[in-house]
Structures are given as C-alpha cells and as structure tokens.
Specification:
The structure holds 2 protein chains of 2 kinds. By secondary structure, chain A is an all-alpha fold. Chain A has one helix spanning about 5-30. Chain A is rod-shaped, with a radius of gyration of 14 Å. In chain B, the strands form 2 sheets. In chain B, strands 4-3-6-1-2-5 form a 6-stranded antiparallel β-sheet. In chain B, strands 10-9-8-7-11-12 form a 6-stranded parallel β-sheet, sandwiched between helices. The chains are: A mainly alpha, B alpha/beta.
Chain lengths: ~30, ~425
Amino acid sequence: MRRDETHWMATAIELWCLIATVAFAALQST
Amino acid sequence: MPRSVKGLWVAGFAGAATLPLAVALVGSPPSGRGFVIELGSGFGIVALSVLALQLLLPARVRPVTAWLGAEVAIRLHRRLADLLVAAIVAHVALVVVGTPANLALFDLLGAPWRARAAFASSAALAALVASSVLRRRLRLSYARWRGLHLLLGLSALALAILHALGVGRYLSSPAGLTVAALAALAVLAVVQLRLLRPRRLAGRPYLIERLVPERGGATTLALRAEGHRGRAFRPGQFAWLKLADAPHALAEHPFSYASSASRPERPMFTIKAYGGFSRRIAQLAPGTRVMVDGPHGSYRPRPGAERLVFIAGGIGITPIVSLLRSAAEAGDRRPMLLLYGSLRWEEIIFREELERLERRLALRVVHVLTEPAVGWAGETGFIDLELLQRHLPCDPHRADIFVCGPPAMLAPVLQGLDRLGVAREQVHAEQFATV
C-alpha cells in the first residue's frame, strides 16, 4: 500500500527533534 | 507540490520546533546537571514549540496552504500529535527519573502552581485527543468539536507556557523569547483565522443564484460575487463555505470548485449532502448569502505533463470536472483519460456534461459501475490494478494522474499505481471524507 506522504514528513520531523534534544542534553550536561 | 518544496518545508518546521533548544544552548552555560534531567528539559522545550506549531498548521496560513496544501497540513497536524504526546511523556518520565524528588510534584494538593499548570495543560491535551478520537462515538457535531478543539489547544498552550515560566530555568532566557514568539505567531494565526478573516470575507459575500439538482443526489450551488469581482482560483482547488449571516460560526465545510477557473466571479460547488453542514448548505434558498474562504489546495498538473489521467469515485468528480471544464475553455488538446467509478448508471454525477466534454477535449471517459443494471457491457466493480492495466496509456510515466474519491476507492487505486511503477510525483491524490 502506498504510504501517505505525510508519513515521511512527520518521521523526518520526529527524528530531527529526537536528535536535537539528545544533542542539547549532551552538550548542556557536560 | 514537488518533493523538494515539501523537504524545505519539513526542514523549516523541524528547525522552528528545535530553535528554542539552540537558543537555550547559546544563552545558558552548561548547567552541570545530569544528562537525564537535561534530556527531560529538552523534551519539555520541544513539546512546547511543537504545541505552538500545531496551532499554526491548520490555521490556513498562506505559506502553509500554498507550499504544503491545506489537506496535507491537516494530515500532518494529526500525525504530529504523536510527537507532541511522546515529547510530553518523555519530559515527565525523565524529569522524575533524573530527580526522583520531583515525584512529589504529582501530589497536586501540595504541589507548586507550576506543577498544577503542567497537570492542567496535559489534562487539556488528553481531553483534546480523546474528543478527536471519540468524536463520532460522543456524537459531537463537527462544528462543536472544532470549537472544543481550538479551546483545549489554546488552553493547553497557555498552561504549558505558565508551567515553563514557573520552572524558569530556560524560558526566562532568550530561549523563552523564541518560544514566546512561536506561541504569539500561533495565537495570531488563530485570531486571524477565527476573527479577522471571517470579518473580511463577510465584506465580500457571494449570493446563491441557482441550485441545480444533479444525478446521484448531488446539488450544484451556482454562486455570484456580490459587489466584488470574485477571487481567482485554479481548477482543482477548494474553498470553505459558510453562511454569511454567521461569519464567526464554526459550521463550515470544504468543497471543491466544480466550475471553470475562467469565471471566478461565478464559482460553482457541487455538493453531496451526507448530513450536518453539507445537508444544510445543499438546502439553502437562492438569494442566500454565503462566504467563500478560498481558494486553497495544491491540486494541479505539473507544467509540461504530456497527458492527463483522472480517476474519480462518486462526488470526487468535482475537482476533476473543474480541471476538465477549464481545459476545454483553454483549448487544451492533450490526450486525457477519465476512469470514473459510480454506483449505478442513473447516478453518474455530471454524466451528460462528461459526454459534452468528451466531444470538446481529446478525452475518453470509462465508467465503472459497482451496481450495474442487467445488460451493462462496460466496466464493473472497483477501480483496481487489473482495470488500471486495461485502460492506462502504455506509457503512464508521461502522464499526470489525478485521483479523487472516498478512502475505500483511493487505497486500491494508489496501490495499483504503485504496482505499475508510477512515480509519486506524477500522482495527485485527494481524499474525500464525510464529517
């Protein structure tokens, strides 16, 4: 089944938010 | 809309959602607190920005509707609810795991107001999600649900900001200003959508000139711009219609323009009354004033498409008939094919109009009936892979394909196109759902 195009858009946003948050915590806790 | 534009848009959204994190990083020296608690704070900041952006997404702001398409914006809004809930859950869990003493904040009677604000904000969001998922079961009308949705969303945002101000660690710094700017933009967009735009549109009303009964229980509303020249639209776009005597009411409904784009002062909308607002609007008397909030949507052929294929089901024909009528008026000679699924021969909406368009355009219409009468020699059943293989041009890769219909029709068609190796960029799909 063809996936709704918002699937990749939301996944990209979610991944970016996760990476940015982890990076923030790593830099801020050093 | 090309994928690169959507990619840019995604980058913009993701950037805005995490901008406060970057500003917090620059604005405050490392705290010396542990990784887990900082991760918890980070998720809290992201949740707040996403909450603000979630209010912006469905607010019909031009950069959103023009670059993304209003329908995609709504679907993205639904999907990103997961991100918001996950960020809040992670924030709460990590703040407790990182500093177990924070568990005391769950004792709401003794908790400081910042914790109570957080609890109230989460409760508003939980009610918002529950009312969306259970709307039909709760028998909430679409208009009431929208009012509730907006109220709960705004309350959740205000309470979350209050919570963040109470905590004061990051949001009293420049990062706070970034979040405040996002929240202010979101609130402005809502005020523009719900207060300013209705006032502006009420000053540019349209009169219902005629109501034309169509086959299949549909009705065409022929409108005339009153005291202005109408708003130009592209065929395939849609508008929200609402009654002009209640400009601020939440009862409104999106309908595709069905008329040719060459006469924006006399737009036509063909409506199938499923109930609720669509039934009410289809029963209005000629002379009634309506407001047209549009055009919206990005449903249009790519420049340079060599041939056009249209696949419609039921009332999903409306944007397609607008594309065909506009093409006929523009003298478009490109080869076109329409696969049109209806229940019965008598119920084919625009049947005679499509016959006329076949004569004016290089168009071939293939009707597909799910309940054919005895003796019907044409296509029957649903539009699936086999039917697509029988009728699509040998080289579908040079065509732009427009699909519009209910979800049950869209799924097998899109699946079939995938199997045939048609690139996504060539396919413009629009789902019609009843609300």
